[in-house]
Amino acid sequence: MRRGASLLTAENVAFVIFFLFLLVYPITTDEFSLLNTAYFMAITLIPLSLAMIWGKAGILSFGQTAFFGIGGYLYGIYTLNVLGSGATWIGILVGVLGGGIVAAVLGWFMFYGGINDVFVGLTTLALTLVLQTFMAQTAGDEWMVGEARLNGYNGMYVPQISVGDMPLFGRPLYYLYFVFLIGIYLLLRWLAASRWGYGLLALQENRPRTETFGYNVRLMQVQVFGLAGCIAALSGVLYASWGSYIDPSSMGLTAAITPVIYVAIGGRRSLTAAMISSMILMKLSQSLASTAPEYALVIFGLLALLAVLFVPEGFMAAAFNAIDRWLFRRSAVAPAREAGDVAPGPRPGELT
Amino acid sequence: MLNGVFNAFYQFEVSFSFLFLSAIGLAVIFGMMGVINLAHGEFMMLGAYITTIVATHGVPLIVAVPLAALGVALFGAVVEILVVRRLYGRLLDSVAATWAVGLIMSQGMLILTGPSMQGVSSPFGSFAIGQTSYAWYRVFLGVVSLALIVFLYLLFMKTRYGLRARATIQNAPIARALGVDTARMYTVTFALGSALAGLAGGLFAPTATIVPFFGTNYIVEAFVTVIVGGANALIGTPIAAALLGGIAATLGTEYGLYIARVGLLLATIIVIRVLPQGVTGLIDRWRMRPIESRSTR
User: Fold this and answer.
1) Do B107 and A295 touch (CB under 8 A)?
2) Which residue of B has its CA nearest to A352?
3) What rounded mean pLDDT belongs to chain B?
4) Is the pTM of this model over 0.90?
5) Could you tell me where the DSSP H helices lie in chain B?
């Protein structure tokens, strides 16, 4: 937000409604829906991290699920080996930092090596699949890390986050996840509105020009990629702890592409749109899966297709813009060129 | 000893043909149009289904597989006209859109035909050298791969279509100014890439179980080959398939399937880092070398 810009935008109003709804939701509902919503909140961190790197910095990553998996597995390995009260909280830190460090190293490897645009997508996809393939073959007894049994596709047992010796469940668990989600969201909003965030927007539009303005473009790319890795890893930690379980399918091809589709449908340029629409889409896909399992994915695919073809900025982001224009009589920022799509210059395949 | 050599060569040949055949359709579309077709695996699945359905009605495989290629080509042309055409120059959007097309295809097939289908058995039988037996059909796949390379070379370098298609990728506005219908070129090229996917699916159908998620078995290897090969489908893809086929065959016989796959993917990450344009980049650099070094050759 520029200084002087009004806080009264459709996006902010939507966030406040979303916030209040999640805040009072536990009063009105049963334990099962509560846990279910906590699960959604944990997973929504991935689309949120994607909206940050893809929407703000123009980096398309299929690797968020890899960092998710690293976070979940590291948390499990740590908490299985180090017992005692408070271990799970350090375990969260271990998972988050582990995912973040892997992301930062990969980011350094890519961005300082001059890899950009679609090749980042391909490299991160390859990393995700390496991890999935590797974890898939760890079913044997030789794959023990201390007390932790990796267990391949049978899945690894993971202890739950606990206070003292009591595992968290019910409302305390829900509110913990709620605080994580809202906290990360606010952190990202704050970062996106900072000088650094504006630098990210600039480098998405034009890297060489941003560099000539004195920004260290590559460092900024590594920083935002590492940050997004931390967030994705946190998501993995919360997911693994929620179900006491993690397996390699959380890092497969489908898992890597689904959050990208959520963000594309909702609107990648708005953190709020990405967050809220991901929650809605997850709820939708879950209820479709129970009522008409065969048709759920067809409907989902059609929705994604329609979004890409007719509302490329995303359904929810487009709605925000429209409401801003009509209700608040404010000219919304003109949709920028769909950046990150094709950089000016030779297309791939062009032989000069 | 000789048996060992033959066995190694056979493993390599099989890896090469599976990589090449699954990648070539994807590579043609990526190289000629700059579009990453995430529905590639589902196009292969469609080819496998058409082949299986036609073959179980008594049509010989040798007719059924080309029919599958033709059917998938038509389907690809429709997808190009309805979806892909609107997304040129929006690479990431075309990734999302083709993924959605693939999702609709595999789920649609699940609804239409159920979770699996009776397959056809692989023809030609087998032969034995020493104690080991080998399938003729897998040797045949290698022959088809080589024939396909020759066919694509002739198609792109010797025909009117090839000339126009290459003109279109090199500079679409100028090609248009010279009277090339570039929109049609894109449709035909996408259909060609789809046909190659359908052909691969049809050829693999006798070697695999026919399920709606047939494509997911090959899609990763196909991507990896295209990434390593780069945009030039004629030269890059065969070289990449040979390179990766060598890695996969070596690691596969030593350490098993999973480690072979991990090796493939790690090799790919390193190749992207060293050669972001893949093997194609290396060839272009060689072709663009300074004149002096060319004359002293």
Assistant:
1) yes
2) B170
3) 83
4) no
5) 2-33, 40-56, 61-82, 91-113, 136-158, 160-170, 172-177, 182-204, 216-229, 236-255, 257-274, 278-287, 291-295
